[in-house]
Design a protein that fits this description.
Rossmann fold; 5-stranded parallel sheet; 6-stranded antiparallel sheet; 3 domains; single chain; alpha/beta; Ubiquitin-like (UB roll); Elongation Factor Tu (Ef-tu), domain 3; about 20% helix
Amino acid sequence: MMNVVISAIRLEAEDIISIELVPANGGAMPVFDAGSHIDVHLPQGIIRQYSIWNHPDETHRYCVGVLKDPSSRGGSRAVHEQLRVGQVIQISEPRNLFPLDVKAKRSVLFAGGIGITPILSMAQRLAANNQDFEMHYCARAEEKAAFVRKLKGLPFADRVHFHFDSGAAEQKLNAPAFFTQEPKDSHIYVCGPTGFMDFVLNTAREHGWPEAHLHKEYFAAAPTSRSDDGTFEVQIHSTGQIFQIPSDQSVIQVLDAAGICIPVSCEQGICGTCVTRVLDGEPDHRDYFLSPEERAKNDQFTPCCSRAKSACLVLDL
């Protein structure tokens, strides 16, 4: 954990602010790679993950962008309403679950809405490395898209393509046409709302893109129905203890109440913090973190949101 000072807050677009964080005691920030995020500790004990959007070569600050989400569980609202310039807050050191493949001959970056934050950092790294890339930035309207002015002023502005729902038909993203023409050895990076990401990724898959060339980071899980959730059991391998997981509680919630602590952060199956090894049983995977190949092995799951298809899961705890 680090103490940092909020040195600036800027309005970047409608309902989107950028927050600049600097070390509370001077010096340099820990180095980060493009695609990294930090855990930000907010009032009332809320912890949220935000991607760093500034250039990875900068060591004096981290910059994050936060959308005030009307369906906020409290995190984005706290950022917009309670954080102020000069305030000292705690953050984690950067972690990267969305890294660039440095061996890729060409990279194509797709950002939807606030998903521009890690994508912007990636574009700055790729440009600094003189690597071949282009960016597609989609938003409902230009006034709702953060960093448009900054992107238009960067040296690689000619590689950035804007697609606004409110704009003319010819400027909207035509993913099928793009993936028909794009070489299949290009690496694809996607971040944004779930529907946008699924559209881009599934279109790529339909055009034969190998899964290893598809890179993604979800910001929030899509709403899911819990009406069919049943009960199941988890067994702790080291002690033999068995716990029943009712339909209205997660594995994390039940184990935490019993004093068994599993590190957790997003609680939506996005960040991978709580991934736990499964020794027996079949998980019902509901996360956005594990790849299809990892899910198929059924040897790990995210207890914050995933459940069980079998009557019992034996956990390596």
